[in-house]
Design brief:
There is one protein chain. The protein is mostly helical. It has 14 helices and no strands. Helix 5 packs across helix 11.
Length: 347
Amino acid sequence: MSCRTPAAPRRLLRYTLVTGVLAVVLCAAVLAALALGSVRIPPGQVLDILTGRAGPGPFRTIVLDVRLPRVLLGIIVGAGLAVIGTVLQALVRNPLADPFLLGVSSGASTGAVLVIVLGVGAGIATTVTIPAAAFVGALASLLLVYTLARGGSGLTTNRLVLAGVAVSYILSALTSLILVTSARADHLQEVLYWTLGGLGAARWDMLALPSAVLVAGTALLLTLARPLDLLLVGEEGATVLGLDTARFRAGVFVLASLLTGALVAYSGAIGFVGLMVPHMARMAVGAGHRALLPVAALGGALFLVLADLAARTVAAPQDIPVGVLTALTGGPFFLWMLRRRPEGAPA
């Protein structure tokens, strides 16, 4: 991939080194995720299975039919959430922006849960209806938070975060209300999956849509790297440089909602990946989005693969929802971000 943002040779070398290291570590994490679990499989045997040198057997079934779809879904969701978080932080010029904190994931979950409980589109739900409902929920919640945060005095950090938290709580309560009023008790497990987030239900036939949306969405966002960079100089500066900020923000908000809906529809609401990873990626390669987005995608994929590996091994044979672990790490990170920001810092 062409990379023009880090023009200086030193920056280009650093960018190449960072992406290379992340790719190697991600491959090692994938191998570990396939080898470790309630049943441990030697890494050499995992490689034999992946390369087709191993014959049929229980280890082959565990690796190819159980663990590999889960790991691939983790890569897709982690990369996507990190990319979305990076873009949202640029759109609202707020380092605390994240699909979960801004209520986008909760909106997507509410839409998905509503479809599950009502039984809309039964039979094609996993491929069409749930992603569509998750997208509508994500878009509606994001527009609501953005509208509430702007208010009469303009967009500020505190207003954005508080509006996001409030909308997220309201949508979580609405999800609980939908569950309580549901006539079927077996909806509890499904709804718990959506609210806590998890990758345990991954199957091969679930990967096509989120992966296609992720690749297409990320490619489109890469073409918008320069306008995203312009937003970093401020509203007036971006307008002077020829960017229609209102139209651009509206379009990218829709795209971010589509991405979020497509991912949350299959993984549930996994929080804080889009908050933490973009900051680490910026520290590694700077703020230019043409270089930042691929690094954030690699970092998000690595983070969620490792988090999911921990989720199914630290309390084995119990499988902890991965959203619980990302919240345990993301919560302290969020508090650290709040403390290090100067009082009254602009949004």
